Amino acid sequence: MILTVTLNAALDLTYVVDALVPHRAHRVSTVVEKAGGKGLNVARVLSHLGEKTVATGLLGGRNGSRVAELLGDSPARMRTAFATIAGETRRTVVVVDGDATGFWEPGPVVTEAEWSSFVGHYTALLTISRVAVLSGSLPAGLPVDAYAVLVTAARAAGVRVVLDTSGPALAAALPAGPDLVKPNAEELAEVAPDADLSTVDGVLAAASALRGHGVGTVLASRGPEGLIALTPDGAFRAVPPHAVSGNPTGAGDACVAAIARAWRHRTPWPGALRDAVAASAAAVAAPQAGDLDTRTFLSLRHGVAVTEL
Amino acid sequence: MILTVTLNAALDLTYVVDALVPHRAHRVSTVVEKAGGKGLNVARVLSHLGEKTVATGLLGGRNGSRVAELLGDSPARMRTAFATIAGETRRTVVVVDGDATGFWEPGPVVTEAEWSSFVGHYTALLTISRVAVLSGSLPAGLPVDAYAVLVTAARAAGVRVVLDTSGPALAAALPAGPDLVKPNAEELAEVAPDADLSTVDGVLAAASALRGHGVGTVLASRGPEGLIALTPDGAFRAVPPHAVSGNPTGAGDACVAAIARAWRHRTPWPGALRDAVAASAAAVAAPQAGDLDTRTFLSLRHGVAVTEL
Q: What is the pLDDT of residue B161?
């Protein structure tokens, strides 16, 4: 079982309009409501790949109920076990007129008691999990080291843990020793300000600095050029056979999902990275974040070139 | 009792952002949720003016429940008696960065059975009403002559009826003989394409053409320059003592509310128009549609100049 955690889930609304013109009124031709949040995207990709998952996190209020209702349509292998909070789950509104314009509500404030209760709930779910994936931002009210608490609990339970977040939430969780982090370019630049991140050596230097904080593996995405991974078993580079065009939102979640799946099946690094690059590309080729074009995934995975650095 | 009807109510979301930039992501600093719809604005203004109202219309789904919950905070003299439909009440999102950018969801599709049931519900409410105010657009699924049905029922019950809508919904209701309509410039131009609507004579000509369809009174707003009314008792012009700056959204609803209140108290035309112009200006001076600055209302009403044309 793979456990995904979405502390700051959202009710995602997509509004299709002809053309967004500031300071005008727009008739929305199509409204799509979706259960949103990076951890839920990871769970959906895993479900597309045939894995059993439990998606947990925090949901509250009417928007939270709507998210739970939308998740009710998930396939049987994607179970949900969210904890309820008093605050209102945030909405995100994305206005699409060819390109996308996003509006993120600030989201709920989680109380101390709700957080303590969630940690208990999560710890119980760890007992049936092999891998945990912690994704996305922290809602207000949570301590900055909230992910450190969840990483520590996973390690204590013998569950491998992937952490995909950024900023202070990531920095505060590094000493707890997550098995894998996926920093963005900003974070890499922060730990290695002198490194040239356009080069493989520069990325490796930054990843090495991050690993020094106690992290198992550092995975650095290079967009259409694939991945660089600094792992306990060595450094690797994985490059897709060709570029895929589409929507890059959700590619990172698909990448993380593929790694979690590989760990669940004890696949060694070259194979895990091959899957991760193919899943990212297949997510780019799919219309919505959290979807995955399985044909693209299957056709690409054997063409991904993994080299040890 | 004054009955207000809002067939296409909405959950209004106001998102405050620093600056709206198309094709970027925006953090929303403040979210305001409000029960929206022109008929509800009319009811709120009436409530500010001390009148007892019943607000009816159609609500459905989670958004509808949220609207009902928000209406629960209304003062006791503003009662609500909405009928429930299966479809989901629409949301409107207005992004404010100094100026406003609006996104209107398409809204629910009302079934024939829901409409028949609502007509019965409305007819029952007419028995306790002196005046009915029908405001706003028609949701999908309703016949284009829906307002004609409601106007006919009001007249049969001896209830005076104000119709504030536009386009085909207005055109189809004219033969039913509403006691007052408040056409916009487009509608006036349509019935009298040769009239110069920048002149009082031009507006009177257009209003006269509209009255020919069976309407009691035609009220034409001239924005900061006040109102022109073609009534069964003659033609009038009402001009405010000075311009008021602020938010013009909701001024039309305040105007209609003042007329309904005047009818409820059998106030003759000059006084009714004085109130209507003062209420419009007081709504412009208030921060939110449906609010009314009562001090502005009281200070302006005696300064409004009403002349018979």
A: 98
Domain assignment of residue A29, yes or no: no
A22 interaction partners in chain B (CB closer than 8 Å): 20, 22, 97, 99, 101
- Do residues B304 and B267 share a domain? yes
* Closest chain B C-alpha to A108 CA, distance in angstroms: 12
For A291, other C-beta atoms within 10 Å of its C-beta total 18
The Cα–Cα gap between A219 and A170 comes to: 14
Answer yes or no: do A106 and B24 touch at CB < 8 A.
Answer: no
ipTM of the complex as predicted:
0.83
Give the pLDDT of residue B294: 87
Contact A28 B66 (CB under 8 A): no
Smallest CA–CA distance from B102 into chain A, residue? A25
One domain for residues B8 and B127: yes
- Long-range contacts for A299-304 (Cβ within 8 Å, ≥24 apart)? A300/A240, A300/A241, A300/A244, A301/A274, A301/A275, A302/A274, A303/A240, A303/A241, A303/A242, A304/A226, A304/A238, A304/A239, A304/A240, A304/A241, A304/A273, A304/A274, A304/A277, A304/A278
Structure-model confidence comparison of residues B249 and A24, the more confident one: A24
**Sorting pLDDT into bands at 50, 70 and 90, what band is A203?**
very high
Tokens 């044309």, residue?
Answer: B309
Structural domain tally of chain B? Answer: 2
Task: Give the residue numbers spanning the domain of B62.
Answer: 1-36+43-161
Q: Are residues B199 and B269 in the same domain?
A: yes
Which DSSP category does A196 fall into?
-
Q: Is A52 on the interface with B (CB under 8 A)?
A: no
For residue B58, give every residue at least 6 positions away whose Cβ sits within 8 Å of its Cβ, in sequence order, or none: B6, B7, B8, B9, B82, B83, B84, B85, B89, B108, B110, B114, B118, B139
Distance from CA of A157 to the nearest CA of B (A): 37
pLDDT at B243 over 90: no
Residue B227 lies in a domain: yes
Q: Judge if B9 and B58 occupy the same domain.
A: yes
**One domain for residues B12 and B141:** yes
* SS3 at position B166: coil
The alpha-helical segments, DSSP class H, found in B139-250 are 146-156, 167-173, 185-191, 200-211
What is the chain A residue with the closest CA to B27? Answer: A104
Q: Is residue A285 part of a domain?
A: yes
Residues B5-29 have pLDDT tens digits of: 999 999 999 999 999 999 999 999 9
Q: What is the CATH number of the domain that holds A60?
A: 3.40.1190.20
Q: Does B102 sit within 8 Å of A25, measured CB to CB? A: yes
Residue B192 has what pLDDT? 85
Which residues of B belong to the active site?
253
The DSSP symbol for B224 reads: G
Residue A102: inside a domain, yes or no? Answer: no
pLDDT tens digits, one per residue of A84-108: 999 999 999 999 998 899 999 999 9
Of residues A193, A194, A250, A256, the one with CA closest to residue A229: A256
How many CA atoms, within 13 angstroms, populate the side-chain half-sphere of residue B64? 21
3-state secondary structure of A143: coil
> Is residue B288 pLDDT above 80, yes or no?
no
Average pLDDT over residues B293-305: 91
A66 contacts in chain B (CB < 8 Å): 62
pLDDT tier for residue B123 given thresholds of 50, 70 and 90: very high
Using one digit for the tens of pLDDT, what is the confidence trace for B95-119?
999 889 999 999 999 999 999 999 9
**A222–B contact, CB cutoff 8 A:** no
